[in-house]
């Protein structure tokens, strides 16, 4: 199970009739971002077919879990709510650094799990800034997964889908998006696989951290602290720092 020091979870096994990865790849690394811990966690549980994450209790740190689909290895990195307006630049930078360390040598896909009725213009700007700090390639490797509204009523889904922040985010990701409601397991995996194929299996290179060795916040070197300051300054300069 997870430990307070590493955030790693015990690898799981799941078999499926759908082969997730091309034969030349040994692992798929996916980073989950968004504005709802509950929804991100339910997506991880959905992919792995087991309740590895408690959807009600957010741990406040990045967690990584690995599993198997048809003998193919998939690593999912779940993040705390990096879009929260009260999160400091320092906290945000630490979470991004941890996420980069957990996804080395780099993520293949960013899965953006968005609760549509709560996705504001401020959150959109913050999410874009976070993705840009991973890499300028991040949007090309991103898939938007739109959560089902908490309260369903006639026409509500259509209304929230027309919100400018959500439309802008989908545009940035070249309109790669799915709706959570009635989503089949194989369909989600197929879309992840498609992004991998589009980039010939290449992962995102997180340039801002590429020459740095990840360590826990309690064991940072002077050089890493200088890197942290650089990223914090960058955030400040940007102004924003089966079925379900």
From TrEMBL:
GO molecular function, one term: GTP binding
UniProt keyword terms in alphabetical order: GTP-binding, Nucleotide-binding
Residue ranges constituting the AIG1-type G domain according to the UniProt record: 25-213
Nucleotide-binding keyword on record: yes
Superkingdom of origin organism: Eukaryota
Gene3D superfamilies: P-loop containing nucleotide triphosphate hydrolases
Record-stated family: Belongs to the TRAFAC class TrmE-Era-EngA-EngB-Septin-like GTPase superfamily. AIG1/Toc34/Toc159-like paraseptin GTPase family. IAN subfamily.
Protein name per its UniProtKB record: AIG1-type G domain-containing protein
Lineage summary: Eukaryota, Metazoa, Chordata, Craniata, Vertebrata
């Amino acid at each position: 199970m997870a430990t307070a020091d590493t955030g790693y979870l015990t690898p799981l096994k799941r078999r499926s009739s759908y082969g997730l990865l091309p034969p030349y790849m040994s692992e798929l690394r996916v980073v989950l971002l968004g504005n709802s811990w509950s929804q991100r966690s339910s997506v991880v549980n959905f992919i792995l077919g087991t309740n590895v994450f408690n959807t009600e209790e957010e741990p406040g740190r990045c967690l990584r879990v690995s599993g198997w689909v048809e003998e193919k290895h998939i690593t999912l990195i779940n993040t705390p709510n990096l879009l929260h307006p009260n999160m400091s630049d320092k906290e945000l930078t630490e979470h991004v650094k941890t996420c980069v360390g957990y996804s080395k040598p780099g993520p293949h896909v960013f899965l953006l799990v968005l609760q549509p009725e709560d996705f504001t213009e401020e959150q959109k700007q913050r999410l874009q800034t976070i993705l840009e700090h991973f890499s300028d390639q991040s949007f090309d490797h991103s898939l938007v997964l739109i959560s089902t509204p908490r309260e369903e009523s006639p026409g509500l889904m259509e209304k929230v889908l027309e919100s400018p922040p959500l439309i802008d985010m989908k545009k940035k990701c070249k309109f790669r998006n799915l709706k959570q409601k009635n989503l089949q397991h194989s369909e989600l995996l197929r879309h992840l696989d498609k992004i991998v194929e589009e980039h010939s299996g290449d992962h995102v290179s997180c340039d801002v951290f590429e020459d740095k060795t990840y360590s826990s916040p309690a064991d940072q070197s002077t050089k890493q602290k200088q890197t942290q300051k650089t990223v914090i300054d960058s955030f400040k300069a940007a102004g924003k720092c089966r079925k379900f």
